[in-house]
Every structure is written in C-alpha cells, then in structure tokens.
Amino acid sequence: MKKQEIKKILKPLIKECIKEVIFEEGTLSSIISEVLKGTATKQVFQESKAPRLETDQQVRKRIESKQSVLKEKRKKMLDSIGREAYNGVDLFEGTTPTTSESQAGGGSKALEGISPRDPGVDITDFGLPFGTWKKLAGN
C-alpha cells in the first residue's frame, strides 16, 4: 500500500474518533476550562468607577463655603489692624483677590494671566450632535 492510500483510509477514521472523544466524552469542556485557567492568571481586571459629578446645589454650597471663609479672613485682617484706626471703615469692601499677573514673581504657568472669574469658552454648540456633551459627562 502506498502512503496516499493509507492516508485516504485512516484520515476519515481518525477524524471520526477525535470528534467522538471531544464531543461525546466531555473532553471539550475540560479543554476550555484549562485554557481559561491559563489565561486567568495573565489578565487582571480592575473595576474603576467614573468620577462623580457635582450637582448644582453641591457647587453652590462649595462656593458659599469659600465665600464665607474669605469673609472670615477679611474680618480677621480688619481686627488685626484695628477697626478704630480707620474709623470702622471696611478697607476690603468690594475688593477681589489678586490674580497671578498682579503678584510679584515670574513663573510660567498654564493659565497665568487668566482671571479665576473668567467664564471660559461655551462649548455647548461645538458641532457635536445634541446631547453628546451630557453623554460624555456621564449624565
């Protein structure tokens, strides 16, 4: 017998035997579980939570608390220089904190010279489909 003739006879028999062992005897499930065990040690999944966005009410409370801290600092400064020295006049009334452009020193910062009260750029109509920014923000 030639090699090709033996191959023609044995190949279908071997295929049938392998199918029978894999599917009927449950070998396939053990192969899959072994593969999963091998890959489970290599991949580590970490669950990360998206940062929680502040609500309008939380932002207002945070701003109000900062303003109250600022008022308290102004009051302490007035008390330290003596209210009677200026006939009870509030020297800091209507003033705002200095920005980096008016302070001495010359560092190079990303937003140097931009007022903290600058509202920035309105990106609501940036050319994206309606509601895209809300989806990106997680709302």
Give your account of this protein's structure:
- There is one protein chain.
- It contains four helices and no strands.
- Among the domains are: 3-39, no CATH class; 55-90.
- The termini are far apart.
- The model has no long low-confidence stretch (mean pLDDT 75).
- With 139 residues, the protein is mostly helical.
Concise description?
With 139 residues, the chain is an all-alpha fold.
Whole-angstrom Rg: 37 Å
Which regions have little confidence, pLDDT < 50, spanning 5+ residues? none
Q: How big a fraction of the residues is strand? A: under 5%
General shape: rod-shaped
The overall pLDDT average reads: 75
Short key terms for the protein model shown above:
about 140 residues, mainly alpha, 4 helices, rod-shaped
Strand and helix layout:
Elements: H1 3-24, H2 27-40, H3 56-81, H4 132-137
